[in-house]
Amino acid sequence: DFCEKYNPGMKFYLSDAWPAPGHVRKLFKLQANPESEAFFTEAVYDKLSADAIAGFGGLVKTLRESTKEVYILPTHAAMTEAAKRFLRGELPGFKGLYKVIGGKEPSIWRDRIGHIHPGLESLEGYVFYATLYQRSPELIKGTVRQKGVNKQLDATFRRIAWQAVVNN
Predict the structure, then answer these.
(1) Model pTM?
(2) Is residue 85 within 8 Å of 156, Cβ to Cβ?
(3) pLDDT digits over 91-144, tens only?
(4) What is the per-residue DSSP string for the chain?
(5) pLDDT, tens only, 24-65
């Protein structure tokens, strides 16, 4: 109410996070992290996504009772797609999914909490860009310089981000 009182027409954005080890344990009722990355399949990520969509969808529905200007930054969808591409061998430069599970470096997720590897920060940024500006990050001129991200991977991140936003 305060925000809308002093900023009429304000939009609110929620980041739906990404599938961290804690989310995996909770959803699959595990006492600890899976013993190996072999646990992770596209079907596992589909289940994680469905759970995230249901949870955040319910939150948005509740919030929209007081304001219609609530939107999701679909980082979960983007990171899930990146993980699926890794499983298919389509994410060059990455050797693992979760460093705390597979021990490989670089992994998409780098710690026990579920922070992403710094090389994926541009993917997250592209999701924010696509959501806020409602434009494909593929239209951004030039290249983003980020350690571990070559031109091909950057283009992949831009496509993933745009599809995550369009399909959300």
Answers:
(1) 0.92
(2) yes
(3) 988 999 999 999 999 999 999 888 999 989 999 999 999 999 999 999 999 877
(4) -HHHHHSTT--EEEE-----HHHHHHHTT-SS--SSGGG--HHHHHHHHHHHHHHHHHHHHHHTTT-S-EEEE-HHHHHHHHHHHHHTT-STT--EEEHHHH--SSEEE-STT-PBPGGGHHHHHHHHHHHHH-S-GGG--S---BTTB-HHHHHHHHHHHHHHHHT-
(5) 999 999 999 999 999 999 999 999 999 999 999 899 999 889
